Each structure stands twice: as C-alpha cells, then as structure tokens.
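ok so i was messing around last nite and threw this chain in just to see what happens. nothing serious, just curious
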Amino acid sequence: MGGWASAAEQAPESAAVGSAVLPAPAVGDAQAAVPAVPTDGVPVVPLVTTAVAAVLGLIAHRRRWLALDGRPGLGWLAPPMHLMGMCVATWLAGGVATLVAARSLGLQGAIDPAALSTREMAIVTASAMGAGMLTALGVIIWMRRMQLVPHATASPVRSSMSGVAMLMAWWPAIASAGWLAGQLQRAATGVDPPAIGHSTLEQMVQGTRDAWWWLMGLSAVVLAPILEECLYRGFVQQALRRAGLAPWTAVVLTSAVFTLMHVGSVPEGARAASLTSLAVLSCCFGWLAERTGSLAAPVAAHVAFNVGNLVVATAFA
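result:
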C-alpha cells in the first residue's frame, strides 16, 4: 500500500498476461495518511506537516544527507539487459500463477479485481505475488552464488531498522506532497480526492475479517513489498546503474516507472494526490537502496508503510 489511508498502492489494476491478467499488488502504493482538509477553517495539520517537510528538506540539503555520490549502492554486477530479462521473468512467473489461480476458481477472461470476492481476490493476489516474489528471490540468490551480488556491509536487521527510521524522516515530505497535489486538484476541478484511493484497500476496509481477509493482508504488507523492491530497486534500478546512470538519475527514472505502473489501480479522482505521494515514496525507497547498499532497507520501509496505512484505513473507516 506504499500510503493507503487516502491514496494509491501498486501495479496497474491488471496487467495482461495471455488471456488472464496479473492483478495489482494489494498494497504499497498510496498517498500518505493526512487528515482530511476541513471545508471551513485552516487545515492546521497538513500545513504543519508541510512546514516540517520544508525544514527537514533544508537540513538534509545543507548536511548532504540526500547525496549519493560515493555511496556503494547495491553493487550488482550483472549486465543491464540480463537484469531487465530477470525483471521480465519475474513478471511472467506472476502472470502464469495468476492464470492458474483464476482458472482454478472458474474465472474466465480478464480479471476485474472490483468484481472478485474477498476469497477470490486473496487467492489470485497471493498466487501472483507469491510466485513473483519466489522467482525474484531465487534469481537474486543465484546471482549471489555467481558472485554477481555482493554481500551487504551491514546486517539485514540493522539495514531494516535504518530503513524504517529513515522512512519516518521522509514521511512529512511524502504526506505534504500528496496534500499539496490534492489542493491543486481541488482548485482546478473543484473535486476533492476520495478518502481511499485503491480498490484493494477499499475491499479490505469493507470486508469481513476472516481467513481470506488476512491472506489478502499478508499479500499486501509482506509479499508485495518484497516483490516490488526486488523488481524496481533491484532489477530496474540496478540495470540503470549498470548502464552508467548516476544514482539519483536511476532513482528518479525507476520511480517514474514505479508510479506509472500504479496509474491503473488509482481512481481518476485520486490520481493527483496519490500518484504524487507514491512518486516521492518511491524516491525514498530508491535512495534507501543506494545509501545503505541493501535491499533490506527499502523492503522494511515498504512493509512499514503498507502496514501503517492498512491499520489507519481499517481503524478509522
């Protein structure tokens, strides 16, 4: 749910794979939770959040916290085209799993997530996310054995803790970016962004807390973050780095791809706020990968972000 309480999370609502489609990941893409702007009075909390983001941004700039020059990054050694091929293979694995799961449920043709029951959505999503995640992890383990992926200098636990801590520092920027985009949308169209901007999150908010609901939640807060970080911060971002791009250039381009892949899962009325937040969030994940030299940091931050947004959305729905 990358900031779900009022926004977007992950791949397009569906991606065609043969005669079936690969459903959007359950979470990891969304606008950070910011209290709704009151129709009368001053929106104090969003304005304070924006001010905090500006101050933190100024401090980070002066102290060069965001600078990535000289940072080792992930240091993957595979050729760019090989990495992109691994990315495609991972998506195909998810697509095949989607097709198998859909046919086992008696679903025909393109899959419309909005038309699926909680049970059907949980099975299809878990199958797609699980197969993609296992494929990506298997490829990375193989590359490590081939000495194409160096061991991270910090332990996974330490990198994960750093990722969550750094996400908290980025949160004001993520939240305020989405809020400002929402205000521009309201000024231009007179339409406020919806409180929930992702179909899967809305289904979870309205669904019964049964075993299938929890399976969908597992896909959203665990499987999807691992899969997406392997795909984007791993294969795509490292392919761009191996092609000779500077760290921040690779981070921004990867974030653009990541954001565009989520357009289909965001209602039209929520796109300005949700996709803006998602783009900033994705830059945070990319920066974490380059700064820490480990995928554990962006994975942990992604998991924490999705968990937080799911908790907020379900608690205050």
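not much to say yet. Residues 2-39 have pLDDT under 50 and may be disordered.
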